[in-house]
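Posted in: Structural Biology > Protein-Ligand Complexes

Title: Requesting predicted complex, 6-chloroguanine in pocket

I'd be grateful if someone could produce the 3D structure tokens for the following input. Sequence and ligand are given below.
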Amino acid sequence: MTWTATVLTLYPEMFPGPLGHSLAGRALAEGIWSLGARNIRDFAADRHRTVDATPAGGGPGMVLRVDILARAIADLRATTPASTPLLALTPRGPTLTQARVRRLAAGPGVTLICGRFEGFDERLFTGSLGVEPVSIGDYVLSGGEPAALVLLDACVRLLPGVMGAIQSGESESFESGLLEYPHYTRPATWDGQTIPEVLRSGDHAKVAAWRQARSEEDTRLRRPDLWERHDGARVQSPSGAREEKDE
Ligand code: 6GU
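-- Reply #1 --
Done. Output follows.
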């Protein structure tokens, strides 16, 4: 079955954009996934095709109208499975994780709503539409479209047949809850720096042990937040009281 992404946006021409190239582009051409971008403006009711309005209570910017988005969502429901998650990209949502990406990639696809302006009417999330907010990180974009492209890239690369021979699913960053180990390739010495000797030893067990140690060390130093949640932290943890891992 084709994994189906539908994007509601004011800029449908931004899609597939980078996802039309490389790995995702090949998979798109092969029919492993499909992408439809619908213009939110097509669901406006007036002749100026207005989609936004001033924020209640005043303040800067404009807010996307929930009634117009509801019409767009109703229109899509006719062509997408009822089980398709409906997500709106906003920095007010919980941050996307690899665990969430894995669950999305395992489903029928995703419907993404991209906002511009100040954001969405909160009733998009609190009403009966079943829209969930999602962010891609703690910084602010001018619109949800680049975030939608990020989310889709993360999902598509996990679809069966997309990665092909590249079997990096197990070892790569976040799949284990740790950062991936560092990589090296030729030349053996460059800029006065030589590749760690163990990687040139041919001893696969030693290489594996070195990589595991570097994964743990780099995670501890660079991402103490990840390290805190990882199993490896348990023995070092003085309190033993840790939050449950995602999955
Ligand atoms: Cl999902 N949207 C926007 N506009 N900004 C963001 C974001 C999303 N995630 C982080 N910053």
